[in-house]
Amino acid sequence: MHLVMFDIDGTLTETMRIDEECYVRSLMDVFGFADIDTDWSRYPRTTDSGIFDDVFTSRIGKSPTAEDVSRFRQHYIRLLAAISSPSSFAPVAGAGKLLSRLAQGHTYRVSLATGGWSDSARLKMARAGMRFDDHPAASADDAFDRESIMRISRQRATERYGAPFASTVYVGDGVWDARACRNLDIPFIGIGTDSRAALLSTEGAVSVFPNFTDADSFLRSVDEITNVG
């Protein structure tokens, strides 16, 4: 079997904008942190836990306590949960059908590796018509850096499905995804359009798709990477 590992925000769910708004507002509401740099690619650890740790430490001069993290995280989740607009949690086109197709086949298995916390990922996927808990997953609960999150996701998939995988492909939308894949020597498929698509290609994406509506083309690309067929 081969593993196809997915990011969530911007890859399976159209939640980058609302996620950023709630995250930045929570930093202000809970700790009074203003003027947050939202170019997440500039952070050394582009995850919810890593960014929070970096921002808090730079502003306060010491690492956050478990209570600090909990206060921030709970407020952030409350803000996300209060959003009533369905468009804020739309699925990336074709994402749900693709996950089902992969899961029902015999060649590939799915896992999730998100830089978000698990409770926010679970909420976003549910609102977008998908189930986080259907798949082995790792999140910002497990590590500050994406490479570790991806390793943990692969290990959990191996444990759930009972055997190591012949290969792994990662699907994501951020330059941080591409860089983590490069560090781990994992082939990367990008999700993006226009300038983002060009940037992902520059960062090493084997191929880039705007969404998953052309599932056959996406799966052909995965087949070529994994030498299936």
Q: Any key phrases for this structure?
A:
229 residues; 2 domains
Description:
With 229 residues, the protein is of the alpha/beta class. It folds into 2 domains: 2-14 and 89-226, HAD superfamily/HAD-like (Rossmann fold); 16-86. It has helices spanning 16-31, 48-60, 66-82, 95-104, 118-127, 146-161, 175-184, 194-202, 215-226; strands spanning 2-6, 108-113, 137-138, 167-172, 188-191, 207-209. The chain has a 6-stranded parallel beta sheet with strand order 3-2-1-4-5-6, with helices on both faces. Helix 1 (16-31) packs across helix 3 (66-82). It is globular and about 55 Å long. It starts with a strand and ends with a helix.
SSE topology sketch:
Blueprint lengths: L1 E5 L9 H16 L16 H13 L5 H17 L12 H10 L3 E6 L4 H10 L9 E2 L7 H16 L5 E6 L2 H10 L3 E4 L2 H9 L4 E3 L5 H12 L3
Parallel strand pairs: 1-2, 1-4, 2-3, 4-5, 5-6
Helix pairs in contact: 1-3
Distance between the termini: 13 Å
Work out the strand percent: 5-15%
Strand ordering within the main sheet: 3-2-1-4-5-6
Pattern of helices and strands: EHHHHEHEHEHEHEH
Radius of gyration: 17 Å
Overall 3D shape? globular
Unreliable residue runs: none
Corresponding CATH architecture of the largest domain: 3-Layer(aba) Sandwich
Supply the helix-strand structural class.
alpha/beta
Helix-residue proportion: 40-55%
**Tally of helical segments:** 9
Number of strands: 6
User: Could you give me the name of the CATH homologous superfamily of the largest domain?
Assistant: HAD superfamily/HAD-like
How many structural domains? 2
The first-level CATH class of the largest domain is given as: Alpha Beta
